[in-house]
Amino acid sequence: MIDIQFGPQVCGDLTSAASREWLVPDGVGGYAMGTVAGLRTRRYHGLLVVPGETPASRRVGLVSLDPAVTLPSGARVRLGTHEWSSGDVDPRGFELLERFDLVDGLPRWRWRIGAVVIERELAMLPGRSCVAVVHRLVAGGPVRLELSAACTWRDAHGERRADGPTPQVEAVADGAVVEGAYRLAGPGWTPEGQWWLGAHHREEANRGLQPDEDLWYAGRFTGELERPGDTVSVRAWAGQLDEEPPPAAEIVATARRRNRQVVETARPADRVDATLALAADAFVVRTGGTAVDVVAGYPWFGAWSRDTMISYEGLFLCTGRADEGRELLRSYAATLSEGMLANTADTGRVEYNTVDGTLWFLHAVSRHVTVTGDTELGDELLPALRTVVDAHVAGTRYGIGVDPADGLLAQGAPGTALTWMDARVYGVPVTPRTGKPVEVNALWVNGLAGLAELTELAGQDAAELWRRHGQAIASFRDRYPAPGGWLHDVLDAPAPAYPLGGAALHDDDVLRPNQLLAWSLPFAPLEPDEPTLRRVAAGLLTPLGPRSLSPDSPEFVGRHRGGPAERDGGYHQGTVWPWLLGPYVDACRRGKMSVDDVFVGIEAHLTEYGLGSVSETADGLAPHTATGCPFQAWSVAELLRVRRRGQ
C-alpha cells in the first residue's frame, strides 16, 4: 500500500494534523475515527462508535483515552489534545508527536518526551463492536502511564450536555460498564466522575451545526512502563458485555492479518490499487452480524441503494468478493416494490424515492453475470428484473414511466428530487430535474440491453426488450444532442415560468456531468467523440473529478461551505464529485482518448483528507478542498474500478 506517514511538521501543526482523518471500521457498521493530531473535530469522532439497528443509527460511546506520562523526575506530561468552547486547546499533546503512520490501515502515533518515546496503536476486532488501544514504551523509562477515559452515550448525530442525566458508570472487574451499553477494561482502574464542559468540534462549527458538547470523565487506567517493549492496553466493547474479547495485542494482530488478507484477495496491481482495495473494505458490512450491506460513507451515512449499486463493481467484483456481492444482490432484489428498489432505511423507515437506484441495480446484476459468469444468479433474478421493466412501462410512483411516444423514461412529481442530484433546502428540491434526465435514460437504454442479454442467456425470447431498446436508443440519439456541443441535461422539463404540469416544456442544456453516462456504460446509447468530451472536460473536470455544474452557469456555487441550507444549496451546483471520474474515464477510453494523467490529483488526495480513502465531495474552485464525508463508498469504488480496467 502507499506510505501514509507524517513527521513533526505536520503532526505538530494543529491545522494540518487535525484536517487529516483516520478510520478503523468494525465490519458491522461501527468504527473508531479521529485525526492525526488526536483532536476530535467532529461530533462523530470517538474510539468506540457503535452501530444500531441500521448502520446510520450509531451511538458514540468511548470518546477518548487521554494519555499522561509521569517521568522519573516526577514531572507529569499530558499527551492528549482537546479544543474547548473558550477557544483554548488544552492539553496540547500534538506538539509532542514526532510521527504518525497508517500501517495496514491501522493508525500509530509516536510521542517523544525527551528521551522517552511512547507509541500508541489502535484496532477494532473484525466483526464485533470492540476497540483495542495498545501503548508501548519504545525508549526511555521507567514511566507511569495514565489513560483518562472520556465517555458519553448518545446518538452520533447529536450532543450530550451536563444539564441532562449523569451517565451511569458501574465498576466491574478491570474497569467499568457505562450506561449498561459498553464496557471498559484495563489495568489499575480508578473511578472519577466529572463533567468536562464545552468540548468543541471545529468541523461541526464549519458546517453550521452545534459544535459543543460535554464529556463525562468516568475514570482512569494506570500502568507502569518499566523498560522498552512494555505495554499498557485498554479495550472497550459493546454488545455481549460478559463475552470478553481477546487481549488487546491479539486484537491488533488479528486486524492487521485480516487487512493484509483483504488486500491479497483483491490481487492489486500496484500500491494505489492495494490502498483502494483496503479502503473499499470499510464499506462492506454485515448488518446485524449477518446480512451483507454497504455503508455509503463515514461518518454519518448508512446504507443507500443508489450508492450501493453504483459502487457494486468496484467494491465486490474488483476485490474478489463476488460471493458476498451475490448475497447482497439477492437481498436487495427482495426489496423491489412496484418495480422500484428500496432506497434507504436510514430515516427509520424503508423509502422508495429514486428513479435511478433501480436502474443501477439492473446494471449491477448485468455486470455481476458478465464478469463472473454466474448465470445461475441471472436466471434466479430474471423474473424480478422483468417486473422492473413492466412497472416502468406501465408507470409507477412519482410519475416514473416510459413515454410511449419516444420510449424514453420520464420522472417527477411535486416536491420530489428522484435523481442522484437530490438535495433539498427547507424541503424544497434544489434540482428536481423533472422530465427526462440524460443519465436516467442512458441507464434505461443500458438496462434494457443488459436485461435482454440475461433473458437470452436464460434461453428466453428477448425480442420485446430489444424492440424497446431500439426505440429508446433512436430517440436518445435524436433528441439529446444540444446546440452547445454537448448533451441536454433534461428533456421535456417544465419551463421556468410554469409550475410542474404546466403547459410549457423545454429542453435544459445546462452543462452538467450526468451526460457522461451516455458514453460510459457498457450498453451506452452514444459513441463518444473527442471534441464533445473535450468540451465537457473543459467546463467540468478538476483534479478530483468533474464538477456538478459548469462555472459558466449563473447558479454555479464554487465553495461547498456554510450551514446546512448553504451546503445543500450548493451540493449539486458546482461541487466536485469524485465518483464521476469513473464515467469520465470510461467515456474517454471508449473514445480512444488518453487518460494516463487523470488520476494524478486524486491519488495524491489519498493522503490529504480521509487517509487512504476518497472524499464524498470537494469545492468546485481551486484548491478543490475536500468536503462532505472523508470516506465515501462510490468515490473509492469508481476510482478502484476504472484504475483496474486500465491495468
Automatic annotation (TrEMBL):
A family per Pfam: GDE_C
Gene3D superfamilies membership: 1.50.10.10
A molecular function GO annotation: 4-alpha-glucanotransferase activity
Boundaries of every Glycogen debranching enzyme bacterial and archaeal type N-terminal domain copy: 20-227
One GO-annotated biological process of the protein: glycogen catabolic process
Domain Glycogen debranching enzyme C-terminal: 279-641
Domain of life according to the entry: Bacteria
PANTHER family: GLYCOGEN DEBRANCHING ENZYME
This protein's name: Amylo-alpha-1,6-glucosidase
